[in-house]
């Protein structure tokens, strides 16, 4: 089972406020788990001489410094939502977490980018002609995020915004995986450490939100990513129902794009990744994934992509999301303890479930 949170309000502050007030104690637990997980990343020798409070002070100091560099590029919508989340916790009577703690948690993804895997397939590559997108998130199991997964349906606050689905966790208002009502989806992975990386750019989880909030096509999504002040090095895969898939290799200074069926080999730096008709892909295990993609060409669908995920996901696989961009249906697998997400049951989240609910919190049932 996965909790589903519908949020709708006249402003972004209120989206965060409702999240905090409704899920207060769970938000607090998530924030605490993430910060405790960050303490485990302190070098072992330093851990041996630090008190419990000392460890937390070290983590807070590092994350506060990181956020100080990020905050000026963070969108106002997301600054407001985090402020609302903090005030919602206060309204729920929850003590022990403030706005500073929320900022710290949202600074972590850009401090520790990790390798993941992605795929967009359409046309002749799929069994039924649908457009499918896979997003494998392999990331920090020490943060215990898998304990409180959350599907958030974010309804528009104003004209020009899309309804979008945020596949994430309680207390985290950034976006790592998702799709919007126009069928635009995005997959992401860390991509090396080139010279010039900086934290003085829009935090990646808020950039992804901007894409789903405002983009109606992959071309519009790519334009948003191109136009912002970027920070670290990331690779993105963008998909839409028309099969206009785009891959992007980005850093603070560089933004290279390649489109589906545009080339048979993607070369960038030390990477050489063969591409196949009606498919773009890449991941942590490029060579292994390439062989699986070649084998499954023409038969890709939800079931075969689930099998692909089993074959290529890392041990740290936190969640795996498969989107049918044609129908807007989603399939979400969440990690359970030491079991990779790809080895766990997928929960279907059909397009019909996107509609505004009469209740704020629902449950998505287990499925295929």
Please, could you describe this protein's structure?
There is one protein chain. Helix 2 (24-39) crosses helix 6 (99-111), helix 4 packs across helix 6 and helix 7 runs antiparallel to helix 8 (218-227). The protein has helices spanning 12-22, 24-39, 44-49, 52-70, 76-91, 99-111, 204-214, 218-227, 286-296, 302-312; strands spanning 2-7, 117-121, 132-138, 149-154, 164-169, 177-180, 185-190, 234-239, 246-250, 255-259, 265-268, 271-274, 279-283, 317-324, 329-334, 346-349, 361-364. It has two domains: 10-110, Penicillin Amidohydrolase, domain 1, CATH 1.10.439; 113-364, Penicillin V Acylase, Chain A (4-Layer Sandwich). 34% of the residues lie in helices and 25% in strands. The chain has ten helices and 17 strands. With 368 residues, the chain is α+β, with helices and mostly antiparallel strands. It is globular and about 55 Å long. The model has no long low-confidence stretch (mean pLDDT 93). The strands form three sheets. It has a nine-stranded mixed beta sheet, with helices on one face. The longest helix has 19 residues, at 52-70.
């Amino acid at each position: 089972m996965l909790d589903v949170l519908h949020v709708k309000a006249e402003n972004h502050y209120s989206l965060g406020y409702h999240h905090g007030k409704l899920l207060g104690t769970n938000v607090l637990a998530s924030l605490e788990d993430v910060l405790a997980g960050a303490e485990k990343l302190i070098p072992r020798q330093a851990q041996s001489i630090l008190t419990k409070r000392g460890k937390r002070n070290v983590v807070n100091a590092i994350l506060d410094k990181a956020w100080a560099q990020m905050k000026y590029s963070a969108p106002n919508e997301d600054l407001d939502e985090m402020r609302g989340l903090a005030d919602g916790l206060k309204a729920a009577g929850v003590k022990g977490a403030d706005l500073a703690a929320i900022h710290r948690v949202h600074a972590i993804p850009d401090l520790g980018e990790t390798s993941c895997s992605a795929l967009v397939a359409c046309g002749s590559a799929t069994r039924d002609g649908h457009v499918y997108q896979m997003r494998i998130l392999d990331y920090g199991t020490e943060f215990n995020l898998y304990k409180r997964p959350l599907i958030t349906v974010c309804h528009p606050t104003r004209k020009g915004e899309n309804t979008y689905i945020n596949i994430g966790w309680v207390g985290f208002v950034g976006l790592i995986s998702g799709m919007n009502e126009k069928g635009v989806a995005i997959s992401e992975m860390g991509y090396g450490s080139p010279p010039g990386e900086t934290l003085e750019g829009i935090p990646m989880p808020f950039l992804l939100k901007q894409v789903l909030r405002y983009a109606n096509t992959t071309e519009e999504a790519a334009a948003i990513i191109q136009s912002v002040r970027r920070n670290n090095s990331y690779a993105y895969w963008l998909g839409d129902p028309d099969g206009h898939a785009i891959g992007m290799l980005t850093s603070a200074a560089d933004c290279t794009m390649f489109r589906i069926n545009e080339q048979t080999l993607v070369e960038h730096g030390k990477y050489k990744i063969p591409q196949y008709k009606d498919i773009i892909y890449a991941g942590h295990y490029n060579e292994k994934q390439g062989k699986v993609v070649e084998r499954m060409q023409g038969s890709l669908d939800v079931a075969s992509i689930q099998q692909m995920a089993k074959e290529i996901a890392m041990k740290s696989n936190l969640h795996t999301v498969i989107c049918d961009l044609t129908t807007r249906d989603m399939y979400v697998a969440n990690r359970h303890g030491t079991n990779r997400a790809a080895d766990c049951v997928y929960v279907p989240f059909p397009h019909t479930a996107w509609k505004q609910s009469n209740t704020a919190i629902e449950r998505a049932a287990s499925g295929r």
